[in-house]
Amino acid sequence: MKSFVVLLLAFMAMVSAKTVTYNLTATWVQANPDGCHERRVIGVNNVWPPPTIEVDKGDTLVVHFTNGLDDRNSTIHWHGLYQNGTADMDGPSMVSQCPVAPGASVVYNFTVNQNGTYWYHAHVPSQYPDGFRGAFIVHDKEAYFADMYDEELVLPLSEWYHDEMQVLVPKFMSLYNPSGAEPIPQNLLFNETMNSTIHVKPNTTYLIRLINIGAFVSQYFWIEDHDFQIVEVDGVYTEPSTADLIYITAAQRYSILLTTKNTTDKNYAIGTRMDDNMLDLIPEDLLLNQTNWLGYNDDKSDYHNADPSLKDLTAPFDDFYLVPHDKQGILPEPDHEIVVDVSMDNLDDGVNYAFFNNITYTRPKVPTLYTVLSAGDDATNSLVYGEFTHTVVLEHMDVIQIVVNNADTGTHPFHLHGHEFQVINRSPSYGDDDPTPYDPESSDNPPFPDIPMRRDTVYLRPSGHMVLRFRADNPGVWLFHCHIEWHLEQGLVLTFVEAPKIIQEQTNVRPDHWAACADLSVPTTGNAAANSANFLDLTGQNAQVIFLPAGFTARGIVALVFSCISAFIGMGFIAWYGASDLSNTEAKIILKNGVELNDDQELDIQDTETVNPHLAHHN
Ligand code: C2O
């Protein structure tokens, strides 16, 4: 009888599953999200912000995507959607498809078999911070909290830059920025704007889906005089956990249940604040915190600042202690362990790159998925994917353990495509000086949780470590990367090729995806060097810049820059610093890069910027 009911339910789910179709054309749009600066942004169908995609579990989503941008290629990634059986629909350019040229179109077509809060964004380098990102909601009438709320809200958070990425990236990835100081955003957006009011009714429970669709800073989030219950993170339902302050990194999602007060006497401040430890410099005019309002009534006279000094921000809710509602136990001892050290360093071109074990991701000549499909039996050999895509081949159904050691002083939100991971160990921050790798033998290690929390984006603390597990039950090519777009640009990425023989059996690339390659003359067969005669011959592969000779430091590079300064006048860097005299430029480079001076040197600078006291530079 019971199995009959189960079958009947499954049948009912099948008949109710539908196909949901969207036409999304990326287009340039003028917008002024923070009210301070109008600029060109990437919208969809001539509107910004891009629409929220909404489906029910079991639905098939068909997106007709056209790249309506006249000056660059594009793709869309569906962040957090596993693409089980449809690895060719995941979206990252040169990984699971070719970039889509201006004017060209591709179809994304996949079935959504999961629930919760996701998002979508462009997945060609440095594009989504220009605005091409939106929420992706999978509704679930059967969620355990479905009858615990009355209304639903989607609230994206992000930081915002007044300059386009095409202006910021060349300055960032430059000899003149040898410490890799990330550009400082101008503002924090809330619901894609600032100073907004979220109108609420009294005595009503809201399911609020918070999504950090930003590309850099983590944000603290709180609501004055209210606490709330966390019920979902990154698509994983959790046991309800009461919190009044959360810390949400780029790409993370939290669903919270908020019950409003019984009166409309007062309006309350919604506070968001940048994690200023992630900023190398704090310009004097940068507002670290922003206030929006939970509006119970229309009397704007009681709108007031969410003063973070009134809120203790030292101990945000630690997501490590969340318990998934399905109570899935810890995966068994790993079949395959991958240990990676995260570091930042300058290569021979003076630019600051990011590394997993001294490899900075360098894209292949053939999208990695297409190498899998064309490599035959060689697909199980990680060499065919190139030395600089940092590819690790995983066997179907193995338990994979990733140990990530942070030799850098920054916070890094790591994301894995195609999976969520169990987070079984995460160290505290070890601050600026004391990188502390994971030592499996250490008696200080807390025991692994029996029911570890899971999510698809997990932050690693400064100089700390973490241990993640997942089961390789989803054949595909999946990136593992830091979701800070600057660090992605710097190469903090590795590639998993999971169950390549099964990928070959189950993947049928659509003709329009092949056509996208032909449009741009991107080869679709062969190894990372596009060699299809001999998959083990990588001659001609894209390679990372070589390492500096031993002994070179960021400071040495700065010195080199100064000695060459006259030679470089006119090459654009003066404009960057906006400096009128060279000594001021020198001082600014030193300040921006956190270079330490000798006792006999002093900095003479008239500058409007102050240096962050807990300067988190990356060397
Ligand atoms: Cu949000 Cu590589 O993804």
Automatic annotation (TrEMBL):
Residues covered by the Plastocyanin-like domain: 26-142, 152-296, 361-500
Keywords, comma-separated and alphabetical: Cell membrane, Copper, Glycoprotein, Ion transport, Iron, Iron transport, Membrane, Metal-binding, Oxidoreductase, Repeat, Signal, Transmembrane, Transmembrane helix, Transport
Localization per Swiss-Prot or TrEMBL: Cell membrane
Topology of this chain in the membrane: Single-pass membrane protein
Any one GO BP annotation for this protein: reductive iron assimilation
Keyword S-adenosyl-L-methionine: no
Signal peptide: 1-17
Coiled coil: none
Region of interest (Disordered), residue spans: 425-452
Source organism, top-level taxon: Eukaryota
Keyword Transferase attributed: no
GO MF assignments: copper ion binding; ferroxidase activity
Stored Pfam families: Cu-oxidase (PF00394), Cu-oxidase_2 (PF07731), Cu-oxidase_3 (PF07732)
Transmembrane regions listed in the UniProt entry: 557-579
Chief site of localization: membrane
InterPro entries named among the record's database cross-references: Cu-oxidase-like_N, Cu-oxidase_2nd, Cu-oxidase_C, Cu-oxidase_fam, Cu_oxidase_CS, Cu_oxidase_Cu_BS, Cupredoxin, CuRO_2_Fet3-like
Cofactor(s) of this protein: Cu cation
Cellular component GO terms held in the UniProt record: high-affinity iron permease complex
Record family assignment: Belongs to the multicopper oxidase family.
Name this protein carries in UniProt: Iron transport multicopper oxidase FET3
Organism, scientific name: Nadsonia fulvescens var. elongata DSM 6958
Higher taxonomy: Eukaryota, Fungi, Dikarya, Ascomycota, Saccharomycotina
